[in-house]
From TrEMBL, chain B:
UniProt-recorded name of the protein: Alpha-D-ribose 1-methylphosphonate 5-triphosphate synthase subunit PhnH
UniProt EC number: 2.7.8.37
Species assigned in the record: Roseococcus suduntuyensis
GO biological process: organic phosphonate metabolic process
Gene Ontology molecular function: alpha-D-ribose 1-methylphosphonate 5-triphosphate synthase activity
Amino acid sequence: MTASAHMQAPDTDPGYNFAYLDEATKRMIRRTLLKAIAIPGHQIPFGAREMPLPYGWGTGGIQVTASILGPDDTLKVIDQGADDTTNAVSIRRFFHRVAGVRTTTRTAEATIIQTRHRIPERPLTEGQVMVFQVPMPEPLFKLEPRLAETRRLHALGDYSLAQVKLYEDIARQGEGGSSYSHPVMVNHRYLMSPSPIPGFDNPKLHMSPALMLFGAGREKKIYAVPPYTSVVSLDFDDHPFRPVRAPHACAACGSTTSYLDEIVTDDRGGRMFVCSDTDHCAENQMARKAAE
Amino acid sequence: MKTGFTDPVLDAQAGFRALMQAMARPGRVQQVIPPPELPAGLEAAAAATILTLADAETPLWTDAGEEARAWITFHTGAPLVAEPASAMLLLNTGATMPALATLHAGEDETPQDGATLIRQVTGLAEGSGWRLTGPGIEREHHLAVMGVPGDFPAQWRANAARFPRGVDVVLCAGGRLAALPRSVALREGG
Ligand SMILES: [Zn+2]
């Protein structure tokens, strides 16, 4: 049978198989990924494994990353756009330890970007793969709690229920595109949750040069959007989808186009808006300094 | 018995990335790390694809000879099946290709169960031949394939017409491969 002993990359922890997962699990996930790419937007169940991090820490995304990652990759991990949160740092350290892989905070240098809740501002390239951490992969779950029924609706491509519900939400809130997880139609066939990214990021999924992979650990689902694939946010003639950002300039870099986080600056109600994408903000600040 | 991958872990990872790129960018030709030894009848890309994807969970049909069959069983543990329709993976090395319409295409709710046909061909070239459009392709890709049946484009149209059910194809020539996911549309002669 297949040999289990193998060369470790030079500075990895010898107590683990390369990238932590055993080879049988990687093969199963890899086969699932290929089918997910061949059927854009279709959720595929997979035999998710326990990971040494709790659910909510992106165990689905981690398993996808572990199955695709190789010694030539450079990995970036973001959490709400930031590279320096506990979650992002832990995942980056984990892969450095179990795969000896190079890590970076620079979007431009990364070949794999694992993300929770954002897509970088810098346009992605053909050499990059995005891996999304997905808490709830089923875009119909609020309307139809029975999984067997959602499978049937996806098989039929019957999304009339979702449209009615979304219409009601939008009519109540007034605007499409301001919320998270705004559902999208992929390749004109499957309704898909883009994961809890802001609606602002939805257009970045459309015809992206990069491959997009989605992993849901607790729900044990994998799905994908190939490069250069049509991804359209669900909307209506009288309530068209518009990506929304706070109407301010970033207090740190001055950007008027990036997605902003609101930060409370003192206990007297002071607040400011800064880029959610920390690498993008740093790049803008450097460019501004260089121009001065 | 001929050996498998030199490094079973890292070579399988490289093999998978070639397959992932091929599936994500239909018609773009990818290179694999060749296994150091090959059983009679198998070329590097087809052999690497099998070592990357096959195991005890993947019923496999092949028309390859005895040495290749024994090599596959030894290195992957994949159960060999006699009927193409029962296979999850098919390794097709001979002149005759099993008709796509006869392979397992999955069901409406589980189209991912559709088979993967790995077909060894005599040549692959980008830039001419079939015109491919669909997911993974910005405008169009051109792929020339030597060594598939003349009615392959017609078979492919029928395969694509039952989307999301269907079969996915990996075309292998020497150490190179290209893929046709079921989502891709194929037209002949530019
Ligand atoms: Zn900024």
